[in-house]
Amino acid sequence: MDDRLQRVREQIDREVSRRHANRVLHGHPSPLFWLDQDIPVGTVMEHRRTTRLVFPTRLSLYVATPYCLPTKPDRCGFCLFPSEIYRNQEQLDVYLRYLGREGEMYSRFFEEDRPTSVYFGGGTSNLYKARQYDQLLAIVRRMFPRLPPGTEITLEGVPQLFTKEKLVAMRNAGITRISIGAQQLADEMIKMSGRKQKGSQVLQAIAWCHELGLGSSVDLIFGWPRQTVEGMLKDLDTVVQAGVGHITHYELNVAGRTDFARNRRPELPSTDQNVRMYRASAEFLRNHGYAQVTTFDWEKTEADTLRYEDHWYRRFAHGDGAAIVATETWAWGFAGVSVFPGTPGLPGWSYMNCRRVEEYFARIDQGRFPVERGFHYTEKDLRLMILFQMLQCLRVDLQLYEKLFGVNLVDEYRDIWPALQERGWVEGSERQLTLVGDGVFYTPLIQGLLAAERLEELRKVKFSNRANIEAESDRTQEVA
Ligand SMILES: C[S@@+](CC[C@H](N)C(=O)[O-])C[C@H]1O[C@@H](n2cnc3c(N)ncnc32)[C@H](O)[C@@H]1O
Ligand code: SF4
């Protein structure tokens, strides 16, 4: 035990100053391991029906839009989400038709459902013309005519495209909350992303939301090239003074072939500087009456309760009195990531829709579900997935975990928790483990430690699959 604990300590020492990828989406396992190409959507839905007899579920609905305004550098220089370049209105008209057709393919599966939240994301969901928001909501209501009154319906977009006319149209169509992707408020900072966006447009959009009775949320990023603690606090203060109810404060995820990853590394604050930014932002937001509801979500609220809900199926599982409720996400449209977790006895699937629009259209034309690939959970993966999501919500409910899986979580990772406690990252009680202090910032590192063994297994499967495919292709060439 002491040896293993020592190894965990050394691993933390090695990783604590390293830049970690995947700060935005902390899922298990990473889509790098989603190797199943023929997702049996009918079976997934059949499992889901069985699951719902055992576990009450909530369905959150995510609706994607693929397109984004062109930028130089492309993809805003930092973005890792799939998207395609917006060129003209016709793209959106065509896309809405296909969205409706994908809906028809699923409608028989969702006859009984009433989603508890709806999120229009992307890409850029405020590219539509004002008249099209009615159409967008009509497509959703055709599928789900019984949306409960008061359902939170959020639409996210870039500041410069939120005109007052559009916001009125959104509200009239039934949207209740607007999420504004600001990232940075200072014009010289946002310029690095190539976005033609002004800080004043963010403030104007917030003011219109207030005037129209729409809820508002703002996304900001810290760890941006050349950013200082002072600059970050200035942005936070501006948004707080504007009376925004919800702030999402992400650490910049630097990965892939983005412009920031390739060309701006020397300008990026180090991980140690990012920790200092995280600490300063957390203190600032707490002092201004915001409660932290996830690793990066802050909500202006009287009570420190977890009432926030959105497209990231964060509240995967929690105790609702005696019942255990699982949250499912159906992601509709281009590149959407759906999660139907199933039960410990009958684990379910995650899968993503096609990440190229042409492919998305082509599959629908062929009468096939537009799914690219996915992952069928084992029980161990389901345990890790729930654990990751609980960590993302800052608290791990030990009793719920034991009730779901019959496993004592403290014993399961007994070599890891003490190392985290020594660092002051985790506090424990009979009922729960809580991420505290810098532990919240280091959530991805902690998740990596917990999933290390399983990820090693998945890596082996991935490499042996690749080797098999290569051997198969060699054989085919020999025959040819
Ligand atoms: C998928 S984007 C869509 C929103 C909208 N298109 C926009 O750019 O504002 C949702 C949010 O993800 C965050 N995001 C995207 N790429 C990121 C990255 N590399 N690191 C951190 N956050 C990122 C941004 O804060 C963004 O507002
Ligand atoms: S950050 Fe937003 S606007 Fe920019 S490429 Fe990503 S999704 Fe599109």
Instruction: Return the average pLDDT rounded to an integer.
Output: 91
Give the termini separation.
56 Å
How many DSSP-defined strands?
A: 18
Bound compounds, each kind once, are:
S-adenosylmethionine, iron/sulfur cluster
Number of H/I helices:
17
CATH superfamily of the largest domain: Aldolase class I
At CATH level 2, the architecture of the largest domain is Alpha-Beta Barrel
What can be said about the biggest beta sheet?
10 strands, mixed
State the shape: globular
What is the highest CATH level, the class of the largest domain? Answer: Alpha Beta
Strand content: 15-25%
What does the radius of gyration come to? 22 Å
Structural class: alpha/beta
For the largest beta sheet, what order do the strands appear in spatially?
9-10-8-7-6-5-4-1-12-11
Features:
binds iron/sulfur cluster; three-stranded antiparallel β-sheet; alpha/beta; 480 residues; ten-stranded mixed β-sheet
Q: Brief description of this entry?
A:
This protein has 480 residues and is α/β, with parallel strands linked by helices. The protein contains 17 helices and 18 strands. It folds into two domains: 2-24 and 313-468, no CATH class; 56-300, Alpha-Beta Barrel (TIM Barrel), CATH 3.20.20.
Description:
The chain has 480 residues and is of the alpha/beta class. It has 2 domains: 179 residues, no CATH class; 245 residues, Alpha-Beta Barrel (TIM Barrel). The chain has a 10-stranded mixed β-sheet with strand order 9-10-8-7-6-5-4-1-12-11. A 3-stranded antiparallel β-sheet has the order 13-14-15, with helices on one face. It has a 3-stranded antiparallel β-sheet with strand order 16-18-17. A hairpin with a 2-residue loop joins β11 and β12. The longest helix is centred in the C-terminal third of the chain and has 37 residues. The N and C termini lie far apart (56 Å). About 4% of the residues have low confidence. It binds S-adenosylmethionine and iron/sulfur cluster (SF4). S-adenosylmethionine binds next to β5, β6 and β7.
